[in-house]
């Protein structure tokens, strides 16, 4: 981490004073850091490889659970992910853990007669109730298994450690469905491709 900060200090000292785009720097472990013109920095999220019609599940995701409160499906790879026998969160329909036990995941469905923008704000405010400094660090609309979802990454502190929450959000009719996985920040970037593959098992209503 000290070397990351040294690289950032060098970039700050050598960058133009105003009007520059995000500057990229690489850490020792190969991750890319983006230095923004407001003085903040974030890790760059690698782009997922698009599939026909957007993102989609692959043949290895051969186990499926069906929504209890909404008609969604979630497909997952049983060689990497396990369905927990009991849920920890009373709101979740299903909870998962990966083989390393470093990543937790869940699906949630509940009545929500508003749109995707309001759902995104609700999710952020819920996390901010625990960490007021939580913020969205990445967001985009995606087509996943031919359904429209909102992809959101939220950075927050859990037990004073930086975590990333990776969401797929879908709101339609009077229901909302959330798929989320979450882990420590360093694990998130190291496992990003596999986390995206996991998330792509979501088939929204």
Please tell me about this protein's structure.
It is a single chain. Strands 6-7-8-12-11-10-9 form a seven-stranded antiparallel beta sheet. The protein has a three-stranded antiparallel beta sheet with strand order 1-2-3, covered by helices on one side. β10 (147-158) and β11 (161-172) form a beta hairpin. The protein is built from four helices and 13 strands. It has 205 residues and is of the alpha+beta class.
In short:
By secondary structure, the protein is an alpha+beta fold. It has helices at residues 2-14, 116-128, 185-190, 192-199; strands at residues 23-26, 32-35, 41-43, 63-66, 73-76, 81-83, 94-98, 104-111, 135-144, 147-158, 161-172, 175-184, 202-203.
How are the SSEs ordered, and which strands pair?
Elements: H1 2-14, E1 23-26, E2 32-35, E3 41-43, E4 63-66, E5 73-76, E6 81-83, E7 94-98, E8 104-111, H2 116-128, E9 135-144, E10 147-158, E11 161-172, E12 175-184, H3 185-190, H4 192-199, E13 202-203
Antiparallel strand pairs: 1-2, 2-3, 4-5, 5-13, 6-7, 7-8, 8-12, 9-10, 10-11, 11-12
């Amino acid at each position: 981490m000290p070397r990351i900060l040294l690289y950032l200090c060098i970039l700050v000292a050598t960058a133009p004073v105003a009007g520059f785009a995000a500057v990229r720097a690489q850490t020792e472990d190969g991750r890319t850091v983006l230095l923004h013109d407001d003085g903040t920095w974030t890790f760059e999220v690698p782009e997922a490889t698009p599939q026909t019609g957007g993102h989609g599940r692959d043949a290895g995701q051969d186990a499926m659970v069906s929504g209890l409160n909404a008609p969604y499906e979630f497909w997952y790879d049983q060689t990497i992910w396990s369905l927990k026998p009991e849920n920890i969160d009373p709101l979740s329909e299903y909870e998962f853990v990966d083989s390393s036990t470093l990543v937790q995941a869940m699906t949630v469905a509940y009545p929500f007669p508003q749109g995707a923008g309001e759902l995104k704000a609700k999710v952020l405010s819920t996390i901010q109730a625990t960490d007021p400094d939580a913020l969205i660090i990445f967001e985009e609309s995606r087509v996943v298994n031919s359904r429209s979802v909102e992809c959101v990454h939220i950075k927050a502190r859990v037990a004073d450690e930086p975590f990333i929450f990776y969401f797929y959000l879908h709101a339609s009719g009077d229901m909302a469905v959330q798929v989320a996985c979450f882990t420590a920040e360093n694990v998130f970037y190291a496992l990003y491709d596999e986390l995206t593959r996991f998330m792509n098992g979501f088939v929204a209503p």
